[in-house]
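Weekly structure sync, notes
Attendees: PL (lead), two postdocs, one rotation student
Agenda item 3: pending single-chain targets
PL asked that the sequence for the first pending target be pasted directly into the notes so everyone works from the same version. It is reproduced below exactly as submitted, 86 residues in total.
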Amino acid sequence: MDEKTSRLVEQLKSNPAMLQSLMQSQDGQALLQMLTQGDRGAGLQRAVQSAARGNPAEMVKLMNQVMQSPSGAELVNRINKAIQKP
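Predicted structure, written out during the meeting:
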């Protein structure tokens, strides 16, 4: 995960309202779909549980998979820009 994505994760962890707003947005829904495709969300669920226990490696792996595609990278960049806005 690159530095921008790491900052995004930290911002969202510290601001639950921002996270809720993101997940209700079109881009948030698209990200959720990308993170759950293929296994009906089982991988995302494992990654979230692992991250909650202090091990973000699975979440980093999922985000890296999303970032491998041009559409995934563009989506994460749009989310980063939206969160940066005041």
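Discussion points:
- The chain has a mean pLDDT of 85.
- The longest helix spans residues 70-84.
Action: rotation student to compare against the earlier draft before next sync.
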